[in-house]
Amino acid sequence: MRYRQERKRPRRVINKIKDEEKKVKPSSSSNGFYYSFLTVVLLLCLVQITISAILNISKIISYKAKIIQITKTRDTAKALNEQLQDNIKNFSNITGLEAIARNNLKMSGEDEVLVIINTPKEESKEEKSKIIGLKKQHD
After folding, report:
1. Rounded distance, CA 47 to CA 53, Å?
2. What is the pTM of this model?
3. Which of 10, 44, 74, 91 has the fewest CB neighbours in a 10 Å radius?
4. HEC sequence for 48-89
């Protein structure tokens, strides 16, 4: 009895292979569509990533330019503030105030006489030629 059980042959091995071949053929067309669809989706993702990278790089460049401009503005503002603080320190004493009064406000002290000498402005050649032309027309 044991001998007979070991001698049994598998009957459907050939049929299973044929069944598998039949199943592969119809699914290859659906797999082709599936792969082409995935390819299109991946290409769209690649295009989106490329566009995003380009836009990000352009934003980085513009932001760096703005940072440079802002730091220059900050540095000039710091320098101006230091200069103004020095001016405040210099003009807080009496001699500084006297210098401002004399130079900018044209003031003098109690025992001083202020003399202002105005120099005439030089007339341009065009103004002189106009004046000469008017004089000739009137004569």
Report:
1. 10
2. 0.41
3. 10
4. HHHHHHHHHHHHHHHHHHHHHHHHHHHHHHHHHHHHHHHHHH
Find tokens 């050649």 and name the residue: 125
Q: Which amino acid is at 58?
A: S
The Cβ of residue 100 has, within 10 Å, a number of other Cβ atoms equal to 13
d(CA 78, CA 84): 10
The whole-angstrom separation of Cα 138 and Cα 64 is 67
**pLDDT in tens for each of the 139 residues of the chain?**
455 555 555 555 555 555 555 554 556 678 888 999 999 999 999 999 999 999 999 999 999 999 999 999 999 999 999 998 887 877 777 777 777 777 676 677 677 777 777 777 765 666 666 666 655 555 5
**CA–CA gap between residue 46 and residue 35 (Å, rounded):** 16
Residue whose tokens read 């049929």: 15
- 34: burial class by Cβ within 10 Å (0-12, 13-18, 19+)? exposed
Helices 94-103, 13-91: axis angle to 10 degrees equals 90
